[in-house]
Write a structure and sequence with these properties.
Distance between the termini: 40 Å
Mean pLDDT: 84
Shape: flat
Number of domains: 1
Number of strands: 2
Structural class: mainly beta
Largest sheet: 2 strands, antiparallel
Helix content: under 10%
Number of helices: 1
Strand order of the largest sheet: 1-2
Oligomer: single chain
Order of helices and strands: EEH
Amino acid sequence: MEDYFDLWQGINQPIWVDVYVPKDTAAGEYTGNLTITYGERAQSRSVGIPVNLTVWDFALPDVPSMRADFGSYHRAAKWYE
C-alpha cells in the first residue's frame, strides 16, 4: 500500500491503522512490524514499529445484529423509522 500524506514538524498527528483479519484466522497472539517511511523519495528513511495483535476465538457478524442509537436526542431514531 502506498498512501502519502503530509505531516508538520513539531505537531503531533494521530494516524489510524486498520488491520484486516480474515474470519478463518486461528486464535492466538501475532506479531509484526509496521514500517513508516518519511522524507523525500531520494532521501527517505524508514522506521519500524513493533505491532502485537491478539486474535480471539470468535468472528464479528458481517452485519450488525442489534440496532443501536448512541449520542442522539431521546427517541430521535424512532422519528426516522
